[in-house]
Amino acid sequence: MPTETLRIRHPAFAIRGYPPPMSANPQQAMPPQAAAADAPTPDTDPAGLAARYGRVRARSVALAAPLSPEDAMVQSMEDASPAKWHLAHTTWFFERFVLGARDGYVPVDAQWDFLFNSYYQSVGPMHARPSRGLVSRPSLGQVLDYRAEVDARIARRVDAGDIDRDDARVLLLGTHHEQQHQELLLTDIKHAFFCNPMAPAYRDDLPASRGAATPLRWIARDEAIAGIGAPAWPNDHAFAFDSESPRHRVLVPAHALASRPVTNAEYAAFVDDGGYADPALWMSEGWALLQSEGTCRPLYWHADGEREFTLAGWRARDPHAPACHLSYHEADAFARWAGARLPTEAEWEQAATGMAVDGHFADADGALHPRPARGDETGLVQMFGDVWEWTSSAYGSYPGFRTLPGALGEYNGKFMCGQWILRGGSCATPRDHVRASYRNFFPPPARWQFSGLRLARDPA
Prior knowledge:
- The N terminus is likely disordered.
- A 4-stranded mixed β-sheet has the order 9-8-7-10. It has a 3-stranded antiparallel β-sheet with strand order 1-4-11, with no helix packed on it.
- The longest helix is centred in the middle third of the chain and has 31 residues.
- It folds into 2 domains: 150 residues, Four Helix Bundle (Hemerythrin (Met), subunit A); 240 residues, paralog of FGE (formylglycine-generating enzyme), CATH 3.90.1580.
- By secondary structure, it is α+β, with helices and mostly antiparallel strands.
- The chain contains 11 helices and 11 strands.
- The protein is globular.
C-alpha cells in the first residue's frame, strides 16, 4: 500500500516517514539501534499482541472488581476520575483510534464519544473533566458491557487477519495507555476512600510487611557523556512513548546518588524538625500552598504520627518503607533540609540504564504499597517500583522531539509546560509498563500519586 494512502486511511497515527531523519549522527557513543521497523516484534505480531491486549484488558476489570457501582462513580477531586470513567475511557481509546479509523464504522453508542474522550481536541468535544463524577449513566454494568463489545470487535478483526502494522502499533500504544489508567484507578479510588469519613478499604486482604533499617549509602559517579532516552518508536522495535525520544547524548556532571529512596522515618524527622514551618526550605509556590491549605505532613499520614492511609485502610506506618504521596515541593524541601538535592532525570536514567526492571510492582508484589529495602542489599536499590521518584527536571522536549502525527500527537507533547519529571514506577505500576527511559510527569503540587524521592548531591 502506498505511504500516502496509508496515512489517509489511518489519520490518527501515520507511521511511515516519522520522525524525519536527523542530519547529525545519533549513533556516536550510543547503544545499537533496533532492526528495521518492517520486521515483526514480539509486541506487534498478532499472537503476542492479542495475548497482551487480553491480559491488560482483564487486569483493568480485575482492579475494579472490589468496587461497588457507587464506588466506581465517585470523583473526589478535579485531578481524579471515577473508576467507571477509567474503564470506559480506555475502551473508547481502542474504539476511536483502532476500530473507528475505518470508514463506515458504527460506534457502540455515538453519545459516548463525547462522554469518554479525555483531552483529544482534534477528534471532537468532550465532557468537562471536573464533572466526570456526575455521570451516573451509563451504569457500571453498561460500561462493562461496552468493554466486552469492543473487545469482541477487536478480536474479530484479529481473527480475520484484519490488523495491519499500523493497527497493531495503535493497539500496543493503547495497552500502555490502559496500564497508565490502571495506576490512576488505584490512586484515584485511594483518594476517594481517604475522603470518606468511614475510611473504607479498597481491599482488606492486602499483605502488610515490616522491614529493618537499611543504611543510606552514597554512590558516586564521575562526569560522563551518557546516552539517554529511547529510540523513536514505532520506527524502532521497543515500545516507548514519543516523549522518551529521540535518544541523545548529555553531559552528566560528577555527582552521587543515594542508594535507596528516603524512608518514612527520615521524612518524619523532617516533619518533627519543623520542616513544614521553615520558609527557607520551600519554593515560593510550595510555601504559598502550605499557607493556604494548612499542610503540615504528607497527604495520607494520620495526625497521631503512627498511622497512614493505604488501599487496605488505616495501617501502622512502617518507618523503613519509602515515604510516598509527596509533592514535588515536599520532596524538594526535604532534599534542601537534608543538605542535598533532587537528581536530574539524566542522572537518574544514567544510573538505571542496564539495571533489571525489578521491584515491588502492582502485579508482581500484590501489596499495593511501598515496601522497605532489604537490609543486605548494596549499591543502588529500589530504582524501579515502590515509589515514583521526583527529579529536578522539568518535563520538556528532547532535542529533535516530534509528536506523533494526527490526533495521537496530543498524547504527551502538549503537556510539556508546568510539569516535573518522575522516574522508576511505583507499587501501583504494572511491571512491564516501565523502563529506564520512562518519563512520568505531574505538576509540582500533585501528591495523590505514589511519589517519593531519592537524594542526590554534588561533589564536596
